[in-house]
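Hi, here's the filled form for the chain we discussed.

Project: internal
Contact: R.S.
Residues: 371
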Amino acid sequence: MVAAVRSVPRARPMSSCLRVALIASARFPVSEPFAGGLEAHTWALAKTLADRGHQVELFASPGSDPALGVRELPVHQPVLSDAARADVSMPDALWIAEHHAYLRLMLDLARDGRQRFDVVHNNSLHYLPVAMAPTLPLPVVTTLHTPPTPWMESAVQAQGQDACPVTFTAVSAHTAAAWHATAPAARVIRNGVDTHLWVPGPGGPYLVWSGRLVPEKGAHLAIAAARQAGMPLRLAGPIGDRQYFVECIEPLLGDGISYEGHLDRHILAKLVGGAAAALVTPCWDEPYGLVVAEALSCGTPVCGFDRGALGEIITPECGRLAQADNATALAALIPEVVQLDRDAARKRAERFCSLDTMADQYTQLYEELIT
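And the returned structure, exactly as it came back:
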C-alpha cells in the first residue's frame, strides 16, 4: 500500500516554485528511525525541496513521517479471485501489493498528473514507474540507487534508448558506469548529507559501525578488524536479517563490542561524532555509501573496504581503504585513520556530499526538463 505524504512549503522561497511528485520505495515507511539509506535520502530530499519553497508530494508507505502530513491514497491490495490465487504464477502477497500500488499510482498520474505537478521524480526501486513513464504527460526522473536489476533493465529496454521518456540520475559514478549499457546518459547526483544535523563531534576512544545488519554490509568483519586492532566497537542500525544477527553478530558481542540498537539520527550522530573512526565494511559493490558521508560530516575519519563507490568519497586526508573482505588489512589501517585530521573529514563532507549540493543539482535538472 502507498500513501501520499504532502510536505508543506516552508522557508527559503525561490523565484520559481516547482511542483514535484516524489515516489519513494514502498517497502518501508519514510520515517525515523530509518530502515536504510534509501529512506533517509528520500526524507531529506523531500524536506529540503519543501524548505526551499517547492511543493513536494511524497508517495510513500503508510507510517511515513507524520510531521510532513500523511493522507492515504485509494491504493489497496487487489481483491483476487480464488482461481487467480490458485494459479501457479501467483506471487507472494507483498509482491502483488507493491505491484498494485505502483500500478494505481502511475495510472492516477497519467490521468491528471499534468494539472498537479511539473515533474515526477521516481526515487523507488520498482520497475513500473519506468515502464509506465510514456503514459505520463510530464517529465519523469528516475534515480538509480542500485546495481542493474533484470526488471529495471527490461523496463528501460522495452522503450528503446533513443525514445526513452525517463531522465536517469545515478548516486555515484560507479553506479552510472554499472548502468551505462542500459542508461548511458545517467547524470551523477550524489546523495547528500545534512551537515546541520551530522555535526562535528569530539572523537573518542572507540570505533563505530552503522547501517543495516545484513550479510552484505559486513558488520562481522568490522568486529574482527576492531578486535585485531585492540579497540572497542559500537554498532548501530536496524536488524535487517534476524538469522544473520543471531548467528554472526550476537555471539561476538561483549568484551568491548556492543550493539547500541536502531537509533534515530540525532542520537546516531552523537555516537558517530564521538568515535575515533568509522568502519565501513561492504561485502558487495556499494552503490554510494551514505554512512561514509555521515561519518565525514561528523568529522570522523573512515576506514573501509575498497568496494563500489567508497573510493569516490574517501580521500587520503579523511580515510583509508583496505582490500575488500580482508579484516586483517582493515585492522592494519586503523591506527593511521584514528590520527587523521577531523577538520579535514568535515570539510570533505561540506564540499563533496552536502544536502544543499544535492538539492541544487536536482532543482537544476527539474528546471531543465520543464523549460
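Let me know if anything looks off before we file it.
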